[in-house]
Amino acid sequence: MSDQGPSHPAPDRAHRRYGLVYGPAALQAAARGDRLVWALHRAALDQGFVPVVPAVVVLDAVRVVGDDPHLARFLLGTEIEPLDGTHAFDLGVVAHAAGTDSPATIAVVECAARRTVAAVTARSPGTAELAGVLGHDLVLHPI
Q1: How far, CA to CA in Å, does 63 sit from each of 1, 11, 104, 105, 131?
Q2: Which end of the chain has fewer beta carbons closer than 10 Å to its terminal beta carbon, N or C?
Q3: E strands, the chain, where?
Q4: Degrees (nearest 5) of the Cα angle 76, 25, 73?
Q5: Is the pTM of the predicted complex or chain greater than 0.85?
Q6: CA quadruple 14, 16, 46, 128: dihedral, nearest 10
Q7: Longest dimension (CA), the chain
Q8: d(Cα 91, Cα 95) in Å, to the nearest integer?
Q9: Neighbours of 61 (CB within 10 A)
Q10: Would you state the pLDDT for residue 2?
Q11: Model confidence over 2-34: pLDDT tens digits?
């Protein structure tokens, strides 16, 4: 055994993700009672993290699942990030640059990039392109 320390480098703390942003697939899974999503949510809250949900993602999820009590309960443990005119304009610029037309996907990837957190949502064709436009190394936990 060497006195020079471990043979592998220590993980780079700058690249760790200490939070979550939920996309529509995560909210739809929560509404269905998906155990994995609920366990991930509980674990985040137990660790002191408050997952973020862009407001447009709430709209998209409710559009699909309706006024679901499981979804409402799930959202109680989140920060719903508002969307004002300036932010909406900025998201539109990113969407145009990436050629993406899903407002929810745009909001999730941009939020993850800005906050340097992981995204929990479905894979979509525009996700990687958006992350590239933003210069973000997206950590995606697909649902």
Answers
A1: 60, 41, 12, 15, 25
A2: N
A3: 20-22, 52-54, 79-81, 118-121, 140-142
A4: 20
A5: no
A6: 130
A7: 61
A8: 6
A9: 26
A10: 43
A11: 444 444 344 444 455 579 999 999 999 999 999
